[in-house]
Amino acid sequence: MFITKWDAKNLFKIFESGICVKDCPDSKKYKFKEGKNCKTPKGLTKGCEKLTNMYSTVNVADYCLPESPNDMDANSKKGY
Prior knowledge:
Blueprint: E1 2-3, H1 11-16, E2 18-21, E3 38-39, E4 57-60, E5 63-66, H2 74-79
């Protein structure tokens, strides 16, 4: 699971922003392709192909966690 909104104030909202991914992104340049390496859940307004807040991750129990908060935008870094 790749979290798209670390800046959510509620823990449940953070997980609601997650998308299912085949592999965790290894760089900010990683590209998701719907149906190939990601699946956007119902209710998420942006499809996984349109994500702009990419960051390098490490896989921890099938959750893609930031490799370094320095790779995240200011709002996400604050929430993380």
